[in-house]
């Protein structure tokens, strides 16, 4: 009898040790189990370094070493396949060679920046490394002379990247959040963007000698906040419980998409005014016509995608994502060819917002597929933007005046955001946090800055000097505000925002948001 009791006790201890760790800590247990728990934890901690060594130094290699070698072989074989079909185009001085080098250099730059980990400092956005990679390629003579990307290719790729940004903005607009927090969302979306655009126009007119129309164009280039910086940072704070009681992360995530829409619309309006011939009244009527066409056609096609494909088909999210991408890219690029420059962007926004109203669970799947497309175009976009900036072509006083204009405009934006958040139920510290969080710039500036330069080269070469200054300010805006904004959010958030300790009452992040 005594032997049976001991055997049964040994079986219980053995089953306890073999149970998953999640189940082990659920049962409070008794004192004898406590010692076993400590033994399990010690064994786990002791075996972790051994597991890492086996992954990193095994033969054949595993883990990160295996991944690097595999990706290197895939890259080399892809290049060999392209060389078989295209020949000299993938060799140095070839068109495709330059594009491939910029693409992989941008990926490498973003990856290296992610590997930088400083204690007590939040991670920097990878887009900064992508931007610097393109900038380095352009400004090293021995490399830049072999990197030649046709202007048509660069323009089409940036327009496609802008289209994906607009798609994600349209799908990211949540009607429920806008209904519940409409006052704060609209204040954040319209107020700081328009105020910064107007202040940048004034500062650039008196500091950089810009005409008023170019000043407002520059202002709307600067006016957009970057969801690529704001959204991931806010999701990290939201998961930790900071600011969720008052919905601060949710408000900032929802308003970031609308802020981009306002900036892009204002930029297209002044771009048409600058490069269109005719009277101001004619240009205003043309802009209104573009808006009307974009909204009406986008609504019609949005309703169409609500019902086609039907729910009984296979791979419905993939078909919907393909329809949205193909229709939007065709609309944006096609509208430029037929002269309706502002219609394509509005078509994309209205199409995605209208289509998403009827989708429920499939909307998240479609957003994930669109995110996969953005992962391809993001390094292309920032790499190409960095490669547009040449240090040798800048005037001696250009950088100084650009930095002064940028800093003054951002300072006005911070003050206006703080003022607009008054009487919205936030504390003094929370208003400071929101104002500083509404500063980072990246994605929209990367698209709109080169677009002004490209339009000037094609339509009005005598205006290239102004467009180069716009491009320089956009580049500096990304370089200065993106890392500082990420640092402000990551450092000040846990110190300023109150933390909600009950995870069951925390607000869930908006679906499909990873930042763009």
UniProtKB/TrEMBL annotation:
Membrane-spanning ranges: 64-84, 96-115, 127-144, 156-173, 185-208, 214-235, 291-309, 344-360, 398-420, 473-497
UniProt keyword annotation of Magnesium present: no
Membrane topology term: Multi-pass membrane protein
Segments for region (Disordered): 1-36
Basic and acidic residues bias: start-end ranges: 1-14
Gene Ontology BP annotations: flagellated sperm motility; proton transmembrane transport
Subcellular location: Cell projection, Cilium, Flagellum membrane
InterPro entries: Cation/H_exchanger_TM, CPA1_transporter
One annotated Gene Ontology cellular component of this protein: sperm principal piece
Record's keyword annotation contains Cytoplasm: no
Gene Ontology molecular function, alphabetical: antiporter activity
Assigned keywords, A-Z: Antiport, Cell membrane, Membrane, Sodium, Transmembrane, Transmembrane helix, Transport
Record-annotated Cation/H+ exchanger transmembrane domain positions: 106-483
Ranges of biased composition (kind: Polar residues): 15-24
Similarity field: Belongs to the monovalent cation:proton antiporter 1 (CPA1) transporter (TC 2.A.36) family.
Protein name: Solute carrier family 9 member B1
């Amino acid at each position: 009898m005594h032997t049976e009791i001991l055997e049964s006790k040994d079986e219980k201890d053995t089953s306890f040790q073999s149970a998953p760790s999640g189940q082990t800590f659920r049962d409070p247990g008794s004192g004898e189990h406590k010692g076993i728990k400590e033994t399990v934890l010690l064994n786990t901690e002791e075996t972790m370094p051994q597991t890492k060594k086996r992954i990193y130094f095994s033969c054949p290699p595993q883990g990160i070493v295996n991944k690097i070698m595999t990706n290197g072989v895939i890259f080399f074989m892809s290049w060999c396949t392209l060389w078989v079909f295209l020949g000299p185009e993938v060799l140095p001085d070839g068109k495709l060679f330059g594009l491939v080098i910029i693409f992989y250099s941008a990926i490498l730059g973003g990856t290296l920046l992610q590997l930088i980990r400083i204690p007590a400092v939040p991670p920097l956005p990878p887009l900064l490394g992508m931007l610097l990679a393109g900038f380095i390629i352009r400004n090293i003579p021995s490399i830049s002379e072999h990197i030649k990307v046709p202007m048509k290719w660069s323009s089409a790729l940036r327009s496609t990247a802008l289209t994906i940004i607009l798609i994600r903005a349209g799908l990211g607009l949540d009607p429920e959040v806008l209904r519940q927090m409409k006052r704060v969302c609209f204040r954040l979306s319209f107020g700081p963007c328009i105020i910064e655009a107007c202040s940048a126009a004034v500062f650039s007119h008196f500091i950089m000698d810009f005409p008023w129309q170019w000043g407002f164009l520059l202002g709307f280039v600067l006016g957009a906040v970057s969801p690529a910086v704001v959204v991931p940072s806010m999701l990290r704070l939201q998961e930790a419980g900071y600011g969720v009681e008052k919905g601060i992360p949710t408000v900032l995530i929802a308003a970031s998409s609308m802020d981009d829409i306002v900036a892009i619309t204002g930029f297209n309006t002044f771009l048409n005014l600058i490069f269109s011939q005719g009277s101001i009244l004619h240009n205003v009527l043309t802009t209104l016509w573009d808006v009307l066409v974009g909204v009406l056609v986008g609504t019609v096609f949005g309703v169409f995608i609500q019902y086609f494909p039907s729910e009984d088909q296979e791979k419905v999210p993939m078909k919907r994502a393909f329809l949205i991408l193909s229709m939007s890219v065709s609309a944006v690029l096609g509208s430029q060819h037929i002269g309706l420059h502002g219609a394509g962007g509005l078509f994309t926004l209205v199409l995605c917002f209208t289509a998403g109203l009827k989708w429920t669970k499939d909307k998240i799947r479609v957003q994930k597929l669109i995110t996969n497309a953005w992962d391809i175009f993001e390094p292309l976009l920032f790499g190409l933007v960095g490669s547009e900036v040449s240090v040798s072509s800048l005037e001696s006083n250009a950088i100084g005046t650009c930095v002064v204009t940028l800093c003054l405009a951002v300072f006005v934006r911070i003050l206006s955001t703080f003022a607009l958040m008054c009487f919205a139920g936030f504390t003094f510290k929370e208003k400071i946090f929101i104002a500083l969080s509404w500063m980072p710039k990246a994605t929209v500036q990367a698209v709109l800055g080169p677009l002004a330069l490209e339009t000037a080269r094609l339509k009005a070469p005598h205006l290239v000097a102004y467009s180069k200054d716009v491009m320089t300010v956009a580049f500096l805006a990304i370089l200065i505000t993106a890392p500082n904004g990420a640092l402000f959010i990551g450092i000040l958030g846990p110190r300023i925002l109150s933390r909600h300790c009950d995870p069951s009452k925390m607000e869930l992040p908006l679906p499909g948001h990873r930042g763009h």
